[in-house]
Every structure is written in structure tokens, then in C-alpha cells.
Write a structure and sequence with these properties.
Elements (H helix, E strand, L loop, with lengths): L1 H5 L1 H31 L3 H24 L6 H16 L2 H16 L3 H26 L3 H9 L4 H31 L11 H12 L3 H28 L13
Helix pairs in contact: 2-10, 3-6, 4-6, 5-6, 6-8, 7-8, 8-10
């Protein structure tokens, strides 16, 4: 007993250490429970991003390449499309398509979310594709024409294979941005990672840990994609050209 009194400070230290260990154990268990709730929603985030970006690529390629035909009406319409789509926030796109067009076309949450993100990003990709094609020297067009190629043939066999080298790196950056912006579709009730975080918080009122882990999962995905993007930039780097179109 005398030893315990004389070692009072030591007992206190042991007690504090035990409290810290208990706290960390509780936090670890809580983190595992949150991750078990969040991780099943990650595939939905990836699917939404992939489908939206595929749609954006298709629309962006059409809008970006049409002005090459040098028809004033077509050029005006494509420029107007790009300016309007880039000038309206993505969240407004989502609201308009889901609550506006969705009520007319009977779109579900998933279709409306994919369509909204895809249309918004198609404007950015259109500018990237257009800039990549225009970065090819005029002499390449003239050389293709001297070989008897039509405009479509020269675009397919000469221009696009070269333009791809300048298009791919900024396009990969847009994919990362699309992944992060896909979180906005949670506002219309589409269950993905951010929506799952809101559901967990609503049920258990654990705010800091929930949103910390949501951010950590997004960070893990974007860091992995960033490494891929840097590899693409090194692989497709073209001496004398910039890294692509500045997004904002």
C-alpha cells in the first residue's frame, strides 16, 4: 500500500495510457463500422463517374470536331453550347434535368444524375478536343490533301492520331474532376459515397469521423488517378506544346 501511494504519479500515468488506448480502440471500431457502411457505395460512385464521362466524351467529341467543317451556323451553335454549359453550375444542371426535364421525360435519379454530369463535362472536353486538333500544324492538313485524302480521311488518319497525344493528359485531369463532382448527385437522393456519408451521419450523428473517412476515400481514389494521369502526361508529352486547356 505504501508502494502504491509512493507511486501515485506512476499509477496516474498508467491510467492515462489505459484511457488513451481505450479511446483509440473505440475510434478504430467506429472507423471500421463507418467504412463498412461507406465502402459498398464506392462502386456506385465509380459507375456514375464512368458513365457520365463516357457520355461527356461522346458529346465533347461531336461538339469539338463539328466546327472544323467551318460552317458559320454550326460554329455558332457549338460555341453557344460550350459557353452555356460551362457558364451554368453543375448543381443547377442536376436540378434542371431531374426536376425539370425529368418530370417530362420520366427520368429516374440515376439517369438524371449521369445525364447532368455528362452534359456539363462535355463542354470542357469539347474545348480540349478542339484545342488538341487545332494544335496540329497546318502543313499536316496540306500534306494529307496532297495525298488525295478527303477532309474526313485526313482527320481520321493524320490529324487525330497526333492530336490524341495532347488531348489525353488534360482529359485524364477532367476525369478526376468528374469523380469529385459526381458527389453532387447525392442532392437528388442518388446513393453514392457522399449520400452514404449523409445517411450514416443522420442515423448515428457521428459527423467528424464520417466526413473524414468520406474525404479519405475520395482522396485515395483521386491520388491513384493522379498517378495514372502523371504517367500519361509523361508518356504523351509533346515538346513545344502546353499541357492542355486550362479548365477554369
Amino acid at each position: 500500500m505504501a508502494w502504491l501511494v509512493g507511486a501515485g504519479d506512476g499509477v496516474t500515468v498508467v491510467s492515462c495510457r489505459g484511457g488513451v488506448i481505450d479511446f483509440l480502440a473505440k475510434q478504430g471500431t467506429l472507423a471500421l463500422n463507418i467504412l463498412k457502411f461507406l465502402l459498398p457505395a464506392v462502386p456506385a460512385t465509380i459507375i456514375i463517374t464512368l458513365l457520365s464521362f463516357i457520355l461527356a466524351l461522346i458529346l465533347g467529341a461531336v461538339v469539338g470536331l463539328l466546327p472544323l467543317w467551318r460552317r458559320p451556323v454550326v460554329t455558332f451553335l457549338t460555341r453557344a453550347y460550350v459557353d452555356v454549359m460551362r457558364g451554368v453550375p453543375l448543381l443547377v444542371h442536376i436540378f434542371f434535368i431531374y426536376f425539370g426535364l425529368g418530370s417530362v421525360l420520366n427520368l429516374d435519379r440515376f439517369s438524371a444524375g449521369v445525364l447532368a454530369v455528362g452534359i456539363c463535362y462535355s463542354a470542357y472536353l469539347a474545348e480540349i478536343i478542339r484545342a488538341g486538333v487545332l494544335s496540329i500544324a497546318q502543313g499536316q492538313y496540306e500534306a494529307a490533301a496532297s495525298l488525295g485524302m478527303s477532309s474526313l480521311q485526313s482527320l481520321r488518319h493524320v490529324v487525330l492520331p497526333q492530336a490524341v497525344r495532347t488531348i489525353i493528359p488534360p482529359t485524364a485531369n477532367e476525369f478526376i474532376a468528374c469523380l469529385k463532382d459526381s458527389s453532387l448527385v447525392s442532392i437528388i437522393g442518388l446513393r453514392e459515397l457522399t449520400r452514404a456519408g449523409r445517411e450514416y451521419y443522420s442515423q448515428f450523428f457521428v459527423d467528424f469521423q464520417t466526413w473524414f473517412l468520406v474525404g479519405l476515400i475520395y482522396l485515395a481514389m483521386t491520388l491513384a488517378l493522379t498517378r495514372v494521369t502523371r504517367g500519361l502526361e509523361r508518356r504523351f508529352a509533346v515538346k513545344g506544346y502546353g499541357s492542355g486547356v486550362q479548365r477554369r
